[in-house]
From TrEMBL:
Protein name, UniProt field: Glutamate-1-semialdehyde 2,1-aminomutase
The organism's place on the tree of life at top rank: Bacteria
CDD domains in UniProt: OAT_like
Principal EC category: isomerase
SUPFAM superfamilies, sorted: PLP-dependent transferases (SSF53383)
InterPro entries linked: 4pyrrol_synth_GluAld_NH2Trfase, Aminotrans_3, Aminotrans_3_PPA_site, PyrdxlP-dep_Trfase, PyrdxlP-dep_Trfase_major, PyrdxlP-dep_Trfase_small
Subcellular location: Cytoplasm
Protein source organism: Nocardioides islandensis
Catalytic activity: (S)-4-amino-5-oxopentanoate = 5-aminolevulinate
Length: 436
């Protein structure tokens, strides 16, 4: 049954105005709906699991600010903490107490010993790479295809012609000189890692990887893959940077590291965080071994800085969020993620749509391909047209999915039974739309 059309006039009018003054009408490309078509919904407010757009439509939110909102929208205690911080002032350009408290909280919950705050995940990975190069005195960076680390020039790189060759720019505007020290490997491919270290081991400053990729959909590391990276880096004097901007405090209480490193007994040299640790405001971080972090200015020679770094409102929001992120929160998120992932899988199977549901901890995604996805090449076999049909059928029934097939689906502890029920009701219709 097709639901009555939802009004979208105000979103359409805002989108037209936005396009006149902002490229594509958005401030981050995926928001423009280019991958699924149609008009992005301009959101006026959020509460718990729900979004309300400018036309008054309500949606269960399965994006949660791209993972940042672990506790849902407008969590009362987080809001209260933010309001109190704002009432005191918004930025001082001096050290503040919330920064120290958030740093202690993060150091207490992760294997890192010291941490530095920045304002975005991009800054975190960019700074971690600079530090790794400064610490090792080497230049080459190894990354994996399909892993996104923000829009850092040297990481917007596409694989060159062979495994051990240097990368080419992944976008106009990045000069070849910015990627000629980057090597891009297929994800989950140990042999490729070994080959690159055999060829360039004494030049490699670091390997950077998403702790579990979520930016090509969720692709769990094969058992032992992260451990292999950690061991290989250690054997060659390179640093292992685990990017937990997405997975940190989200895949589980201890992030992805809690699911592998903590169990297997290894730790990254450096880690990056963002999203959840900012509680919905711009805060991110990089941190790691005390001796490596000691190379950072003003203690050491590697320069790094930021006008709004460690901002008191953002760090207060992050601190409130992490303190509220109890075992029960993760249990709820885990249950909701599993329920929705299973139901999406069943609906698509009933409709005969090829798909795979993949998860790591509480993070999951639905690939519109019949193949298990272990790397970017497999993720790229998706039927993106089928996803677009599925996406719009869900949107028409009040469920806001990520507007691209290559994204993780995110839930929060505010996704109560009513929100889950609304998604469960919509899924069979959307699966049929995807089958047409
Ligand atoms: N690293 C990972 C794993 C991410 O998922 C992202 C953003 O999605 C980034 C880095 C970049 O973070 P930001 O968008 O805050 O710059």
């Amino acid at each position: 049954m097709t639901p009555p059309p939802r009004p979208t006039e105000r979103s359409e009018a805002l989108f037209a105005r936005a396009q006149a003054v902002t490229p594509g009408g958005v401030n981050s490309p995926v928001r423009a709906f280019n991958a699924v078509g149609g008009t992005p919904r301009f959101i006026r407010s959020g509460r718990g699991a729900w979004l309300t757009d400018v036309d008054g439509n309500e949606y269960v939110d399965l994006v949660c600010s791209w993972g940042a909102l672990l506790l849902g929208h407008a969590h009362p205690e987080v809001q209260e903490a933010i309001a109190a911080a704002v009432a005191r002032g918004t930025s001082y350009g001096t050290p503040t107490e919330p920064e120290v408290e958030l740093a202690e909280e993060i150091v207490g919950r992760t294997p890192i010993e010291r941490v530095r705050f920045v304002s975005s995940g991009t800054e975190a990975t960019m700074s971690a790479i600079r530090l790794a190069r400064g610490f090792t005195g080497r230049d080459v960076v190894v990354k994996f295809a399909g892993c996104y680390h923000g829009h850092v020039d040297s990481l917007l790189a596409a694989a060159g012609s062979g495994v051990a060759t240097f990368a080419i720019p992944g976008t106009p505007g990045v000069p070849a000189s910015s990627t000629e020290l980057t090597i891009v490997l297929p994800y989950n491919d140990r042999a490729a890692v070994d080959e690159v270290f055999a060829a360039h081991g004494d030049r490699i400053a670091c390997v950077i990887t998403e702790a579990a990729p979520g930016n090509m959909g969720v692709v769990p590391p094969l058992p032992g893959f992260n451990a292999h990276l950690a061991e290989t880096c250690a054997a060659h004097g390179a640093l292992f940077i685990s990017d937990e901007v997405m997975t940190g405090f989200r895949a589980g209480k201890l992030g992805q590291w809690g699911l592998d490193g903590a169990v297997e007994g290894w730790r990254p040299d450096l880690m990056t965080f963002g999203k959840v640790m900012g509680g919905g405001l711009p805060a991110a971080a990089f941190g790691g071994r005390a001796d490596v972090m000691g190379h950072l200015a003003p203690e050491g020679p590697v320069y790094q800085a930021g006008t709004l770094s460690g901002n008191p409102v953002a760090t207060t929001a992050g601190l409130a969020t992490l303190r509220l992120a109890t075992d029960e929160v993760y249990e709820r998120i885990s249950l909701v993620a599993e329920t929705l992932g299973t139901a999406a899988g069943k609906a698509l199977a009933d409709a005969g749509v090829p798909h795979v549901v993949q998860a790591t901890g509480t993070m999951f995604s639905v690939f519109f391909t019949g193949e298990t996805v272990t790397d970017f090449a497999a993720a790229s076999t998706q039927d993106t047209a089928a996803y677009a049909a599925f996406f719009h059928a869900m949107l028409d029934r009040g469920v806001h999915l990520p507007p691209s097939a290559y994204e993780a689906w995110f839930v929060s502890s505010a996704h109560d039974d009513a929100a889950v029920e609304a998604v469960l009701e919509a899924l069979p219709y959307a699966a049929h739309a995807a089958a047409e």
